[in-house]
Amino acid sequence: DVVMTQSPLSLPVTLGQPASISCRSSQSLVHSNGNTYLNWFQQRPGQSPRRLIYKVSNRDSGVPDRFSGSGSGTDFTLKISRVEAEDVGVYYCMQATHWPRTFGQGTKVDIK
Amino acid sequence: QVQLVESGGGVVQPGRSLRLSCAASGFTFSSFSMHWVRRAPGKGLEWVACIWEDGSNKHYADSVRGRFTISRDNSKNTLNLQMDSLRAEDTAVYYCVRGKEGFDFWGQGTLVTVSS
Questions:
Q1: % helix / strand / coil in chain A, to the nearest 5?
Q2: Which end of chain B is less packed: N or C, by CB atoms within 10 Å?
Q3: With an 8 Å Cβ cutoff, is B67 touching chain A?
Q4: Which chain A residue is nearest to residue B62, measuring alpha carbons?
């Protein structure tokens, strides 16, 4: 199975400051069709997960442009340019290139 | 708009069975693969199972293979998860999710508690 490793697992941030989460996979996420199926999700307290980013860097409709995704191969990053109070929650990366689909452990973002 | 509504959760004893359902609306259900994903208390997300658009292929996590069965009824826009031989470690909120690679829409989840 592809192991997804996130860091850090806990991320206290100051409002208005940037934040960054790393996600590394144990093997390349480049599919045979050339796509890289790396998604990022946000789960706010008491809510269902919500997809923020798909295929590494594509932002979902309605997602603020302060969220961005980057990376390639086995190394990926989610960045928040200026953290707002509504960004508190747990963030997960997930690969959908290989079976079984696998998630990172989650990164808990809260306000200092 | 896309809606996924799970039902069927509850409290069940170890070794017993439970069947979850997910009612889909707002999109062409038969055109999308569907998944079940769970989150155990205090833990992260875990992918459980997937079924392709026409039901021809199914994939399972090792932790549930042989005990859980995913199915769908495209005439009723419904996704199901038959869970047999339940264990305490199956206690979680179970989410119905759309899309083979996309995981773009999630239901609100249904809580399954396995306890004697």
A1: 5, 50, 45
A2: N
A3: no
A4: A100
